[in-house]
Amino acid sequence: MNNISFTRAENIEGAIKKANNKQGKVKFIGGGTNLLDLMKYRVENPDHLIDINELKLSKIESTEVGGLLLGATVTNADTAYHEEVEQRYPLLSKAMLAAASTQLRNMATNGGNLLQRTRCYYFYDTSTPCNKREPGSGCSALEGFNRIHAILGESEHCIASHPSDMAVALAALDATVKVTGEEEGHRSIPILEFHRLPGDTPHIETNLKDGELITGIELPKKGFPEHYAYIKVRDRPSYAFALVSVAAALELDGEEITDIRIALGGVAHKPWRKPEVEKEYYGKKASRENFEALAEKLIEGATGYGDNDFKIPLAKKTIVRALTEAIEK
Amino acid sequence: MEVPKHPETIPLELNINGETVELDISAWTTLLDALREHLQLTGTKKGCDHGQCGACTVLVNGKHINSCFTLAAMQTNKEITTIEGLANGENLHPVQDAFIEHDAFQCGYCTPGQICATVGLLNMKKGNTPEEIRDLMSGNICRCGAYANIYKVVEEMKEKGTEGTTSI
Q1: What is the residue extent of each domain of chain A?
Q2: Min Cα separation B3/chain A (Å)
Q3: CATH node for A5-53
Q4: pLDDT digits (tens, 9 = 90+) for A81-132
Q5: What CATH number has the domain spanning A227-328?
Q6: Are B124 and A110 spatial neighbours (Cβ–Cβ below 8 Å)?
Q7: Is the distance from CB of B117 to CB of B126 less than 8 angstroms?
Q8: What is the pLDDT of residues A64-78, one digit of tens each?
Q9: Do A104 and B2 touch (CB under 8 A)?
């Protein structure tokens, strides 16, 4: 790793001030499970690390509107096993427990989970071109080995996929990311607007501004505890990133769909969701035919790059399977 | 913009296996390197150094983590337990005894990590079915392939209600 300075922030204002006052590249560090890995590979080369674990962001608490606020530095394990998360938002708990290993979940934080970087091999390999790591250098995955790469929303500059499971469940649940910074103070970013598609700036992955800190993730009241499914298709049954994952959540009135959410992981630069397509299915029957038609529309326009062609039929089938599992619950 | 040169070392105090130790090390030293290179606690192993193999697993406040993926400087004010801290004098921890009893290792390189992960599972009170045990132990790789006997240990510890190190 490169020569860094390390400081521990004692409060939120202090952390933001420290980040703004330092010369050179500054990173907040929570669990560190992705950042330190990238620093060892010299993909991330900060000059300063600011430890945010002492900030008072380590609680899970109820919100005034009946939701739940997940502190930014609560670990993924403590979140997934939290009684209210398990009971009211089992989709989130299930997705989080499908991610990483027990050791990593014991360290990785909620804020850090959202900010983890892609596992594209070329992004990690500093000897190859990568527009995300080195803007303007080119994309090695386009014509390289691209089995784990995106089929939706990608660009000619980047076909990397987002690796998080947690973010996929949060997208289905319409969570909100709470952030705070020096210029704009506190603000809330809907999860679907938090991550960006690559376009011609694949190195800019979120709509966080410089020096802004994630303080928490707010879950709305509605948690879909009755009809939900998280299906993660991967190369081995544990401790592997998703090739395709589907978070499905439904509300039913008899056989009629009154609310339906489908978010996909492993297929795009961000959790993939199309609320406008979902709305067309309100009032329709929760049937296999409708699920298949819906899957077709969600994957519309998907492009394969050779090694990842299989993801197109796989995504469709996994959507139908997840919806079927959700209504059978 | 010129970045000021950082001091080569910073003073740290860590609590390891019930003892307070003082260190003067680079800020970017991982907990794993602090243990092995500065404190000669070489029971904790370096396998991949990238959080993939679990050989470096230690317990922090009773929870098991990859010591290669955290800085020593982030672990002050915590209780760190390594494989060296599990036995009580000459008396091995029940999980250590069970690893011998069940012949749950071959070369032994992954064993300290496997044992700390097992203790961590007992602390968490998780791993209530054989499937769950296999899932929750997937962060520890054994290239000799002693998995069958490792899982026998974990299953037996769960059946007997063995205590880990602490309740969390």
Answers
A1: 5-53, 227-328
A2: 5
A3: 3.30.43.10
A4: 999 999 999 999 999 999 999 999 999 999 999 999 999 999 999 999 999 9
A5: 3.30.390.50
A6: no
A7: no
A8: 999 999 999 999 999
A9: no
